[in-house]
Fold:
Amino acid sequence: MFQVRGASGNSKPPLLRLVRGVMHFFHRDRPAGVDFETPLVSGAIRGTEFTLRVGEEGESRVSVLEGEVD
Structure:
């Protein structure tokens, strides 16, 4: 299950909220800023391609192929 909060005309980046499962993000434009939340962690990704995975127990893993994570 996931939710997305869009940037509604302000300078805040979109927020991806992933409860469980896998989400892969890829785009060809300049690196994007995306904030994320899982049941155990939150952070910010600045990049063009990443995978966010949340397991059964809430364990979270972010794999960034191009970019960085805070």
